[in-house]
Every structure is written in structure tokens, then in C-alpha cells.
TrEMBL record:
It holds the Pfam family AAA_25. Gene3D superfamilies: P-loop containing nucleotide triphosphate hydrolases (3.40.50.300). Keywords: ATP-binding, Helicase, Hydrolase, Nucleotide-binding. It comes from Sphaerotilus montanus. Residues 17-45 have a biased composition (Pro residues). Residues 1-11 have a biased composition (Basic and acidic residues). Residues 1-52, 431-454 are annotated as: Disordered. The keyword Signal does not apply. SUPFAM superfamilies: P-loop containing nucleoside triphosphate hydrolases. GO terms for molecular function: helicase activity. This is Putative DNA primase/helicase. InterPro entries: P-loop_NTPase (IPR027417).
Length: 454
């Protein structure tokens, strides 16, 4: 292989007067990188401070620390101390007069329809429908109330100005007045719907509005009775559901009482007060009552209540009779009615007979309680009651207007009618000195008041 010869290439010659070659411009020096910030240290935790003192919060009470107690009753199983009650009925049934009769009884420490004694105390009444001067006070007076123990709520003061009392606004002031007065055992609010500022058909608004009234009753230990109406077109429904407005009215109260009227075959009124609801005692039974005209003073007439026999049965059963239309008499019904009247008259005769004996006799003849009751009212039987509580008894006597031949008179040997507690006049009246029906002179030895009390 031939060897490669090195070839020398001479550098080009620069002209003698040519300037020296220009050097390439230098790049500007690079800016220094910004310094890396130091890594921040984690912040120290804030010191924990004690929670701020506050009055807000939830109160918890251990069950074992609560003292247990029984329900305190103003009227056993009918009016409870520290609770709210509802008294409902259709217009014209005497709801306000019944409440006034209750107030009259409390004011004098009288006796309830079942004969039990009431503790005496003060009474507060507010009515948005009746005038105290010409309506309410005369009724109280006619029923024997102690007028010094009854107080009407006639107004309130707001910012120093006298205004009309508004239960929805002035319950706090009422509570203060009640505490200052002391010994208040009964408060009547008529109508109770006035305590509701919102829609009385809305459950939540009714409950919120009535809670101050519930608190007031519990605070002072008084029985509160609110008066209201029944809704129209509700016959046959559950009695409690017939109350006007939201179901909250009957849910928030502890006892619901209903007043209704029965019309017998002769068109005579027979009114009943029944217990429709109670979650603190029995929720059935009732009493017959009558609305009568008395006098508060000469020339001042006034309505009053007299009380009759105790009734057994549920409110639905008792009011179903009140709601039922009276059918036209057929010849068979007329004959049966005349038959029961004749049996009743002949069995009682000239005697004073225990009511239980009369009922047993007529039931044995195939007659019902309603037929017996109607016959008693048609004949005008005078009914007296004696005793108290479970010992109460009724005695029946024919009025003087019924003529019974001596030969036809049936004589049975019941004990003579003598009141069990004659000196305390334990008659079936509540805050009334009025009479009902026919005159009847008491048997020898009885020193109670004359006149029928039903």
C-alpha cells in the first residue's frame, strides 16, 4: 500500500494594511438566581382558652333526682291543678255558664256534681264574648258565688297605657298578677282561640301559642279552663275531633269536656256534660245539667246551672244519643211509651223509692235506659241525691200533680230519704240555690233544702 504524503496548506496571507480581525462580542454576564427563601417553620398552635360563660344551653335532669308526685285535683278526675282543660260545645249549650258554675263552686268551697267537696280559692275569668257587668257577674251571684273571690280580667297596661287584654300578648303580665293575688285555683279563658296569634288550624302555630298558657297553669298550680266551639257538620265523628281548629287544641290540653243537648220525644231539652278525653284519669262518664233562669237581684235575671244524675258510658256513646234525630212516633212506640209511664207511676206510688230499684224494675219489663229517662222526665219524677263519691244514691218520688188511686198504689219498703250529710246540705247542686221541677217537702228528720235538684 502506498504511504499517504502529508500535504501542507499554507495560511492565507493578510494584506499588509488590513485591520486585525474583530473578536466576537461577549455575552452579558448571567443574572444571579434569586436566593431560595428559607422553609417557614410551622406556626405554633394557639393556646386553648376556657369556653366563654353563657346562659344558653340544654338542661338535663337525672330521672332519679326528680321527686315523684300524684296528680293534684281541684275536682277529682275532671279538673286538675296545674293543667289546661278544654270545655267545648255548640252555641247555646251554656259553656260559659258551666264555667261560671265551676267558678262559683271554687269561690265558696262548695260541692261538685258528684258530691265531693271543693277547696276554696280565688277565681280569675276573662271573656272576650260576654260583658262582666250585665252577664257574667249576675250569673255568678245567682249561683251563690263569693263575689269577693272572683276577679275579671278587664284590661292590661302596655307602656303605661290602658289597653284591652289580649291573651296572646299579655299572659306574662297575667302570670305576675296571679302570683301577686295568690290562692288562685281556677282560671277561665273564653274563648281559648284568642290566645293564638297565628292560624288556629295549623298544628305548629297552635302549640307554640298555647305553650305559655300551659306554663302559666304549671307555674301557679291552678286549673285552667279554655272554652271553644264544635265544628259544624261533625256529628258522628270522634268527639275529640269535633273541636274547632287544629287537633293541637285537644292534644296539648290534658282533659277535654263536651257539652251537648238531647231532645226527648216531647221536645224537652236534656243537656249532658261528658268527658271526651283525659290522659291523666278516666276518659268517660258525665252528668246531666239544666240551664235555668234565676235572679241575681230583684229585676236582674240571670242564667244558672243545676246538676242532675251521673252518666256512664263513653263520650261517643253519650253524644251519639245527643246527635241522633228523634224519629216520628209509630202507634207501637206510642203504646210502649204509655206503658212505661204507667209502670213507672204504679211502681213508685206514694213512696220515695231508690232510683236503682225503679230502673231495675223497668229494665225487667224490657225498657231501655233512654226510655226510662224519657219516662221519668215526662212524668216529672222528683229526683234527690245523697252521699258522696261511690256512696252516692238517688231517690225518686212522684210529683203532687200525679194522682194515683190508693187501691192502685204500689208500695215498696225503701228506707226513707235522709241525706247522709244533712248538716252540710249535700245536695246535687253546684253553686246554685235554685229549684228545678216540683216542690217536695222532705221526709221527717231531713233538714236539707226543699226542691228538686237534678
Amino acid at each position: 500500500m502506498a504511504e499517504r504524503a502529508d500535504i501542507h496548506v499554507p495560511e492565507p496571507q493578510r494584506p499588509l494594511h488590513a485591520p486585525p480581525p474583530t473578536a466576537a462580542p461577549k455575552a452579558p454576564p448571567a443574572r444571579p438566581a434569586p436566593p431560595t427563601p428559607p422553609t417557614p417553620r410551622p406556626a405554633a398552635p394557639a393556646p386553648v382558652s376556657a369556653p366563654k360563660a353563657t346562659t344558653d344551653g340544654v338542661i338535663l335532669t337525672r330521672a332519679s333526682s326528680l321527686p315523684m308526685s300524684a296528680i293534684a285535683w281541684l275536682w277529682q278526675h275532671w279538673l286538675a291543678c296545674g293543667k289546661v282543660h278544654l270545655l267545648a260545645g255548640a252555641p247555646g249549650q251554656g259553656k260559659t255558664t258551666i264555667a261560671l258554675a265551676m267558678g262559683a263552686t271554687v269561690s265558696i268551697g262548695g260541692r261538685w256534681p258528684d258530691g265531693s267537696r271543693c277547696a276554696v280559692g280565688n277565681v280569675l275569668m276573662w271573656s272576650g264574648e260576654d260583658d262582666p257587668g250585665d252577664t257574667l257577674a249576675p250569673r255568678l251571684k245567682a249561683m251563690g258565688a263569693d263575689m269577693d273571690r272572683v276577679y275579671f280580667v278587664t284590661g292590661a297596661r302596655v307602656d303605661g297605657e290602658a289597653v284591652s287584654f289580649d291573651p296572646a300578648r299579655d299572659l306574662a303580665q297575667l302570670a305576675s298578677a296571679v302570683v301577686a293575688l295568690g290562692d288562685v285555683r281556677l282560671i277561665v279563658v273564653d274563648p281559648i282561640v284568642s290566645a293564638v296569634t297565628g292560624d288556629s288550624h295549623k298544628n305548629t302555630e297552635v302549640r307554640r301559642a298555647l305553650q305559655p298558657l300551659v306554663d302559666l297553669a304549671a307555674q301557679i298550680g291552678a286549673a285552667v279552663v279554655g272554652i271553644t266551639h264544635l265544628s259544624k257538620g261533625t256529628s258522628g265523628k270522634d268527639p275529640t275531633e269535633r273541636v274547632t281548629g287544629s287537633i293541637a287544641f285537644t292534644a296539648i290540653v290534658r282533659v277535654v269536656l263536651l257539652a251537648a243537648k238531647v231532645t226527648d220525644d216531647n221536645g224537652k231539652d236534656r243537656r249532658v256534660l261528658v268527658r271526651s278525653k283525659s290522659n291523666i284519669g278516666p276518659d268517660d262518664g258525665g252528668f246531666v245539667y239544666h240551664l235555668e233562669q234565676g235572679e241575681a237581684a230583684p229585676g236582674i235575671p240571670a242564667s244558672m246551672v243545676t246538676w242532675g244524675e251521673a252518666l256512664e258510658g263513653s263520650a261517643r256513646a253519650l253524644l251519639a244519643e245527643a246527635d241522633a234525630d228523634t224519629p216520628a212516633d209509630t202507634s207501637d212506640e206510642i203504646a210502649k211509651r204509655e206503658g212505661i209511664d204507667d209502670v213507672l207511676i204504679r211502681f213508685i206510688g206514694h213512696d220515695t223509692v231508690p232510683g236503682d230499684q225503679v230502673k231495675a224494675k223497668l229494665k225487667a219489663e224490657g225498657f231501655t235506659d233512654k226510655q226510662i229517662r224519657n219516662a221519668r222526665e215526662r212524668v216529672g219524677v222528683v229526683v234527690k241525691r245523697s252521699g258522696f263519691g261511690k256512696e252516692i244514691a238517688s231517690y225518686w218520688k212522684l210529683p203532687d200533680s200525679v194522682q194515683l188511686p190508693e187501691a192502685d198504689a204500689h208500695s215498696c219498703p225503701p228506707a226513707p230519704f235522709v241525706p247522709i250529710d244533712a248538716h252540710s246540705q249535700s245536695w246535687a247542686r253546684m253553686g246554685t240555690n235554685g229549684k228545678k221541677g216540683h216542690e217536695w217537702s222532705e221526709p221527717d228528720g231531713a233538714d236539707g233544702p226543699a226542691g228538686e235538684v237534678i
